[in-house]
Amino acid sequence: MARENYKPRLGFDIRVKPPGRQKKTASAAQSGEDPSKHDCVAPGCESKAACSLPKSPREPRERVWLCMEHAREHNRSWNYFDGLSDDEAKKVRESSQYGDRPTWSMGKNDRARAAANARGPADMADSFGVFGSEAKVQIDTRGQHRGGKRLTKLQVNAFETMALPFDAPAGDIRRRYAELVRRFHPDSNGGDRSAEQQLAEVVKAHQILKKAQFL
Prior knowledge:
The chain is mainly alpha-helical.
């Protein structure tokens, strides 16, 4: 299709290289400053400049005019770490291995992440039950936590067997265990063996919580 017959359907030119843009690019290139109007700034050089280069890594916006010979010499002696201490240069080299992005050791933030996941409507004081249904959904999906760490199913059952909250301190766990043992043990309840199954469940729950180092 001839350029003079081109009619944009969308109201603007969608061609990769429209004529107007080519002319603008060409004019922008021609408007650049002529290096030959400058002298080479290298000491003792009387040649005309061929290009401009950044003065130094610490001064990238300040440019110097150099002839081709001194431009090559300037590039060969370019040292990005010039002006940095040994520690600063080491940090730059290490950060460049990861694209200059911050990094963390694996597992370092697991506890904080788990604690953040444990927060939500289920942890709010909801006197009017506004968030009741949503809190129940969150509890069912995210599980129960203690100290920012998710509890296993066995640990959850152990706390429920002893009728304790999941964040109960170690002293409360020991006291409740002693109370339940006295209640269900035949030697302390008048020889009633009907509670032996409950006693076995309490002992098992205590062992699970002790193994988890909760007491």
